[in-house]
Amino acid sequence: MTEIQLSNEEIARYSRHLIMPEVGMAGQRKLKQGSVLLIGTGGLGSPLALYLAAAGVGHIGLVDFDVVDSSNLQRQIIHGTSTVGMLKTESAKRRLADLNPLVEVTTYATPITSQNALGLMRPYDVIIDGSDNFPTRYLTNDAAVMLGKPNIYGSIFRFEGQASVFYPQQGGPCYRCLYPDPPPPGLVPSCAEGGVLGVLPGVIGTIQATEAIKLLTGIGEPLIGRLMLYDALSMRFRELKLRRNPACPVCGEHPTVTELRDYNQFCGILPEVMTLSSQYEITPGELAELLHTTVRPYLLDVRNPYEVAIASIPGTDKLIPIDQLPERINELDTSRDIVVYCRSGVRSARAVELLKHAGFRKVKNMVGGILRWADDVDASVAKY
Predict the structure, then answer these.
(1) What percentage of the chain reaches a pLDDT higher than 70?
(2) Which of 191, 248, 251, 267 does the annotation list as catalytic?
């Protein structure tokens, strides 16, 4: 096979790589010949895609079906104000073309599923997990193991992040060796509920990009069998040694997971709003009308205090964060008509279920939360 060559334009562009003996011409040719599939073009995917393209990785695949929202721009630096409303894959491709037109970028504006995961991953050398949810992480892991490809993992939440390279074919563990089972439904809040420091995905995503470059060029010591933990508040890195689990259902000696499945139900992922019968739901418009009558309900906010500082519904009677509700439930009157709200309706739906089990019957969830209140009732209320 003819060896890939670098043009004079590429030699000039990548000169700072070429003068490093660890990379040199041979390493840069490997990058040009290499390919990476990036799952997600959000917080982690932004620095990943930018640095991989800048480094000269020959072919980058982007998988994402979401569109750019203004709330993304605090951390998803590959996107901009001009691309709000655009598919993230197209927004990212536009930015990468400007950064390095010598790199081939293929976009897949689709969710990754058990039906398409193997087909999406098969043409690529390295898989990078830049996702933000458990179903995608488990599916990406299982497909990468089945294809024998390295899976560069990263995750972020609030001020903390972690990264590793899962590659059982090189003696390391897979994601299931580390986390055999997903957390119970509702235990782990999303970044939308818990927040994330804007620069945090830049740190973790750049580490993932570094690992991809090392794997493609064959230099250095990859994070195989090691989990790197980062705490931004204390500015500390820690490392945990990982071992492959011989009983792992995917990469173990006797695997029981031999075909892909979709993990939404397995991971207990909640829908946008939990399913409640109509008698336990109220729309923001209906609530707004009731608040101006003599049968005004008791309004309970189950968000966190720092969220209340951003926006709230006028006339709210009580704030009890959802994680405090079980031990503070005696502060509420079972005889009152209670309407519960949160940011988007997810936590408040859980609160209604909790109150129902505690004997409350006249309790309702305001569907869509304060976000829908801002859309349907009061546009002056800030959305976050």
Answers:
(1) 93
(2) 191
